[in-house]
Amino acid sequence: MKKFLLLLFILASITVIGQSNNGDKTFDRFKERFMDAYWKQYPSYSILVGYGKYYDELAIPDAAYFNTCISFSKAWLDTLANISPERLGANNKISYNILQNQLKTDIWEIEVFKIHEWDPSRYNLGSETYTLLTEPFAPLDDRLKILSEHLQFADAFYKAAFKTLLHPTREHTQLSIEQNEGALGLFDVMLPDSIKVSGLDAVSKETLQLRIKSASIAIKDYIEALKKINADNNYSFRSYRIGEKLFNQKFQNDIVTDFTAKEIFRKANEVKTYCHREMYQLANKLWSKYCGSLPKPPDSLLLVKTLIDTISVHHVSPANFFDTLNRQVQDLKNFVIVKDLFDFDTFSTIIVRKMPAFSGGISTASANTPLPYQKLSVPYYNVADLTVLSPARAENRLREYNNYILEILSIHEAVPGHCMQGIYNNKSTDIIKAVFRNGAMAEGWAVYCQQMMLENGWGNNSPELWLMFYKWSLRECCNVILDFGIHCLDYSKEKVTTLLKYEAFQQDDEVEKKYFRATVSQVQLCSYFTGATDIFALREAYKIQTGSKYNLKEFHEKFLSYGTAPVKFIRQLMLR
Ligand code: ZN
Ligand code: ZN
After folding, report:
1. pTM for this one?
2. Counting ligands in written order, which one lies closest to the CA of residue 401?
3. Alpha helices in 56-201 (DSSP H)
């Protein structure tokens, strides 16, 4: 009897495993079919992930196209509904959830959020053109030929884009003007320069030149049309505040977490208070070193501010900004190996480069992660050129990005933050988790690294660095507070300015930029704090699960092996 039961059990297990394998095999084939169809539907995105097949196509953003996007998503959701996730292995179950969420979000953006109608900055051929021009997926001549095919539709693209717009916001209109002006540099200078050094034959050259010229004219016309709207005093702009209902929906779509937006807002306020307390203690300790016998201000925030202002004069010059960040990347690479935090190949290339103009206007530094389909693709650490700013603005910016903050910035953007995570992302075997990058996982990871590196001795526990670390953490808390505040609680610009200046100790220039950014984005500013909160919670749970076998490097290696999936899903895999 016992033997019989055991046999039954074995048979049952074989069936389950067999089904699972079978289900997984079918699903792997499904993924391949699906992804190919997806990139055909969204050829511009396919360039940004390095899927080469549809580079020569360009979707024209008219009403008919957006309708095909909706029917595309609905059809694939139906197909997904016919696959039972119970028959899939844990890894594919998560990919299944990611796909379902992506398709639902794609529908929601068009049908409910309608962002294609009110955000003119969505229409910009700059970043895909730049990617085709700079990514080494093929020799320059071939890339220029592909670009020539892609750009032949530029005129139709911009004309349709303008027709699609329906009461855009003033802020997105302004942003679009700036970013498209940035893109013009590509068409008017960078591309003609590339053609000169290419080996294209005369006919191809001429065709390409005509197409570039036509694209450049189309962009200029689009900019002019937007400027006309901006100058029209009677134009009824849409408000940039999206309201709590849409905000909550977008929060769930984009972040994928068990927290609600309101819970995260509450948590961010708590952490803000915690940071203030820690900073006050550090500032008290450092007071005599920097301020001598100067009497301490009675107000604790003022005391912290005075000290931060004093320490912030230690900064590089605009001309040295680039070289400093370049050197830091090397130091950080060495550190993570010496401290045994990662199995990271320090010879992996990370290129530090000047910020491409079309993406400028918003940040001081940023990262571009490698294209998931291009195994030779490398990450870029983009650095703004501060020498073009007026001396006063540059000084302001550099006090914000003083010597200590710069170290935290490089941890965040480069190593072990975005650039390094991007390298791990490209090693992930499941393309779904690599291409549908969850923003909260990526930003949460970079934020997690800031604290993890300091805890492991980066900066030798210097109280100055910790003080600046808390200042930087305040930025993440305040990102949540102002994002939720502006969109859901009607925060005024004055209220946000007071918050950032007096409670987060930010410089005027930074405050101005942050406010503008908050008006042209929604939820994205919550991704840093929310993602990091989820990662720290996961690390705690993992510590308990592994007990005496807990090892930080192992946690990192495991966590990063799942691509850029939502932390909530990675948690399901790591805590089995
Ligand atoms: Zn200075
Ligand atoms: Zn980041």
Report:
1. 0.91
2. 1
3. 63-81, 90-108, 115-118, 126-134, 140-151, 154-164, 170-185, 191-197
Ligand 2 centre to CA of 527 (Å) is 9
Cis status of the peptide bond prior to 416, with omega within 30 of 0: yes
Mean pLDDT of the residues in the chain: 93
Task: Return the ligand number nearest the Cα of 382.
Answer: 2
CA of 113 to the centre of ligand 1 (A): 44
Beta bridge partners of 169: 238
How far does the centroid of ligand 1 lie from the alpha carbon of residue 399, in Å? 7
- pLDDT given for residue 14 in this prediction: 39
pLDDT at 12 over 50: no
How far is residue 122's CA from residue 5's CA, in Å, rounded to a whole number?
Answer: 62
Closest ligand to 381 CA? 2
Distance 365 CA to ligand 2 centre (A): 9
Residue 242 token pair: 């999206």
Side-chain-side CA neighbours of 312 within 13 Å: the count stands at 20
Residue 260 CA to residue 539 CA, distance in Å, equals 21
Cα of 367 from ligand 2 centre, angstroms: 7
Q: Which two tokens stand for residue 193?
A: 């320069």
> Do residues 180 and 222 lie in contact, with contact meaning Cβ atoms separated by under 8 Å?
yes
Q: Give distance in angstroms: CA of 316 to centre of ligand 1.
A: 8
How would residue 10 be classed by pLDDT, with cut points 50, 70 and 90?
A: very low
- Phi and psi at 504, nearest 5°, equal -120, 0
Sign of the Cα torsion 179, 181, 185, 187 reads positive
Question: By the 8 A CB rule, do 487 and 242 touch?
Answer: yes
Question: What is the Cα–Cα distance from 96 to 125, expressed in whole angstroms?
Answer: 31
Q: What are the tens digits of pLDDT across the range 177-189?
A: 999 998 998 998 8
| Cβ-count burial 67-87 (b if 16+ within 10 Å, e if not) | eebeebbeebeeebeebeeeb
3-class secondary structure, 166: coil
Burial 405-417, CB ≥16 within 10 A → b, else e: bbbbbbbbbbbbb
Q: According to the 3-state scheme, what is the secondary structure of 396-447?
A: HHHHHCCHHHHHHHHHHHCCCCHHHHHHHHHHCCCHHHHHCCCHHHHHHHHH
Contacts of residue 375, Cβ cutoff 8 Å, sequence gap at least 6: 426
The rounded Å distance from CA 392 to ligand 1 centre is 9
- Judge whether residue 128 has pLDDT over 80: yes
CA dist 333 and 376 (Å) reads 20
